[in-house]
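Request:
You are asked to prepare a plain-text protein record giving the amino acid sequence and the C-alpha cells, at your earliest convenience.
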Amino acid sequence: MAGSVFGDRLPLAQRFAEHLVTSGVERGLIGPREAPRVWDRHVLNCALVAELVPNGARLVDVGSGAGLPGIPLALARPDLRIVLIEPLARRVEWLHEVIADLGLSIAVERGRAEETVVRRRWEGADVVTARAVAPLARLAGWSLPLLRPGGLMLAMKGDSAPAEVERDAAAVRKLGGGIPRIERAGVGVIDPPSTVVVVERVRGAGSPERSRRRRGQA
C-alpha cells in the first residue's frame, strides 16, 4: 500500500515518520498521543492528497507546522515544487533539519500567508494546501491571493467539512473562489480516506457580478 504511494522513496517516508515520533514529539510539533498512529493519520493521509495535485505544480503549504501535508507530498511527488510557510521559529528550525536529513529540495519561509511580503514572494502558485489551519473562509482569505487564476486551494478537513462548506461558501465566493466542493483522496487505500475541500480561484477578491448589478441599477 505505502509502496504504491511513495515508490522508491518509501524509506524516506519512513524516516520522516521517525522524525515525527521522536524529535517532532519532543519539540512539540505533534502530540505524544499521535505517535502510535502517525503513519496512517499523518504521513500517508497527507501523501494521498497528491491525487488532486496537477503534474509539475508549484505548491505552497500554508501553516505547515510539522511539514504536513507538504513533506509527504514532496516524498510522493518529486515533480512538485514546494514551499512550506510557517510562522514559528522553532518549527521552521525543525523543518530545515528534517528536509536536510531527507535530502529534499523544499523551500521554507518563516512568515504568515497573509503578510504582504510573503504573498508577493510566493503568489502565482498552482496549488495551496493547508491542514487544520483555520476555518474555511479565513483560510480562503489567506490562500486564494497566493494562487494564479484557475489554481486550487486544497484544505484538508475532518468531519467538519460539510458544515464548513455550507457555512462559508458565500464568503469564499466573495474572496474570489469558486463553489467549494468536497473530495475524498485515497479511497480504497486508507480508511477513512482523506477529506479535502477544493476551491478554485476564479477571480480576485470582490464580486464582478455584484459590480455589474450595481452599474445596471445606476
In short: The first strand starts at residue 58 and ends at 62. The chain has one domain: 2-217. The two ends are 61 Å apart (CA to CA). DSSP finds nine helices and seven strands in the chain.
